[in-house]
Design goal:
Chain lengths: ~260, ~190
């Protein structure tokens, strides 16, 4: 078994891409499909970052945040996909997940015009921050292009993407360790064979509502089929304090609230 | 080509082990400096190591100009040549975060533009250990004293505060110091 894994700084964290190849003769030196798949993965991450980073003035989000009220901006398909998901999750979570961070959840809308997506800004104050889903979406996109590159080379998709703890795997059993947020060290937690995990800090406000031992909750992980969903659902659990929040169940996800000793 | 994804599949690892075992260190080696330079400069026909020792005085002055102290005065430039033409250089540096120690490389073209940043190795550990200089020193070179050897296991970490702010700062510092490091190494692009 050959494993090719690379890591680079991206999305404000350390991103790792990995590919497993079936046993067999070592590929000849020089460019191979695995290298091409990794390059496609890095390109997909960069593309999502360029579209969705709130810190880049030229990103779709940077342009939206700087635009005046009444503006309509043509946005990339990746931006439209994440905004559509964000809108659906906002509705389904009863307003808990709000990418406008309180500046106006209904002050933006996404319109379709002949196949193109138009992001409309209704008030001057509304600002969007996709921090809660964009990283997960970037992981999904990178994994998808890598799996497609494998399929094009007639190889079974066996790859993973880990963006500083928001991770997804396809066809590779990945032992996921949890970092102890107080004292360091990484403890074995699950073996993920298929699907995505994301981990977020537990919201102090939600912790204050808990009683007894539950108050030791430190962070929350969610396992689901897609990383953008896991990413978003960690926020739902961290804000509501409920592992069994209806939205988690509706997306066939599993949530875990970890206490400070990661039990 | 479309790829079909199967459903979610996972299993919890034995909780008894998690509770009683001391938290292991966690280490991944991605690339050696040699592999990183070959990937960054595929057109090179020769790599040359050149040690640059800025005097402490010069390093301090450069640090002041860059607005942040240089982590050290000695650097190794891995110069990439094609014939007599300098394509660029690769530099290796190390940063320590809250719980992690990251060795990374920056590949720069001869004109100073950044070509590639790669993580060469990653060590996740206990905070106390990372803060101990002695512990840090034992990793200089290669293998760690007791990192979790993962064998055939492929493992990843899920945590909430993994950050690469220190890498980003380090890359910026190296890029800005690069022309002076070239000059100090007697290389004129």
């Amino acid at each position: 078994m050959t494993v090719l894994r690379r890591a680079r700084p991206a999305l404000g964290t350390v991103v790792e891409l990995g590919i497993r190849t079936s046993p067999g003769p070592r590929p000849a030196p020089g460019p191979c499909w695995q290298e091409a798949a990794l390059a496609a993965g890095w390109a997909a991450l960069a593309e999502v970052e360029r579209a969705l980073s709130a810190f880049l003035p030229q990103s779709d989000l940077g342009r939206f945040n700087a635009a005046p009220a009444g503006a309509g901006l043509a946005v990339r398909s990746t931006t439209a996909a994440v905004l559509r998901l964000s809108r659906a999750l906002w509705r389904e979570s009863g307003g808990l997940l709000d990418v406008s961070l309180g500046t106006g959840p209904e002050a933006w809308s996404l319109e379709e015009f002949g196949g193109a997506a138009l992001l409309c800004k209704h008030t001057a104050d509304v600002r969007l921050d996709l921090g809660g889903v964009a990283k997960g979406h970037a992981v999904d996109r990178a994994l998808e292009v890598m799996a497609e590159a494998a399929a094009e080379a007639a190889q079974p998709p066996a790859c993973w993407v880990n963006a500083g703890g928001d991770l997804r795997t396809c066809g590779v059993a990945l032992r996921v360790h949890l970092r102890d947020e107080r004292s360091g060290g990484a403890r074995p937690w699950i073996e993920l064979r298929e699907g995505a995990v994301a981990t977020s800090d537990f919201h102090p406000r939600a912790r204050a509502r808990l009683v007894g031992d539950a108050r030791r909750a430190s962070h929350v992980s969610v396992i689901s089929s897609r990383c953008c969903l896991s990413d978003a659902l960690t926020k739902v659990v961290a804000l509501s304090g409920r592992e069994d929040h209806p939205l988690v169940l509706a997306h066939s996800a599993r949530a875990f609230i970890h206490d400070r000793h990661l039990r | 080509m479309r790829v079909r994804y199967r459903a979610v599949s996972f299993s919890l690892l034995a909780p008894a082990v998690v509770v009683t075992a001391p938290a292991p260190s966690f280490a991944v080696d991605y690339l050696t400096a040699e592999q990183a330079q070959a990937e960054c400069f595929p057109g090179a026909d020769r790599f040359e190591l050149r040690e640059v020792d800025l005097s402490q005085e010069r390093a301090d002055a450069l640090g002041r100009r860059l607005g942040a102290p240089l982590p050290r005065s000695r650097w190794t430039l891995r110069l990439a040549w094609r014939g007599g033409e300098l394509l660029g250089a690769l530099l290796v540096d190390e940063v320590v975060g809250k719980f992690e120690r990251i060795t990374y490389s920056v590949g720069l073209a001869a004109d100073g533009t950044i070509r590639q940043v790669e993580i060469l190795s990653y060590r996740e550990s206990h905070g106390q250990e990372v803060r101990l200089p002695l512990w840090r020193r034992q990793f200089v070179g290669k293998s760690a004293a007791s990192p979790l050897r993962l064998g055939q296991d492929i493992a990843g970490i899920s945590g909430a505060t993994l950050s690469c702010a220190h890498v980003t700062e380090g890359v910026r510092r190296i890029a800005r110091a690069f022309p002076e490091l070239l000059r100090a190494g007697g290389v004129t692009p």
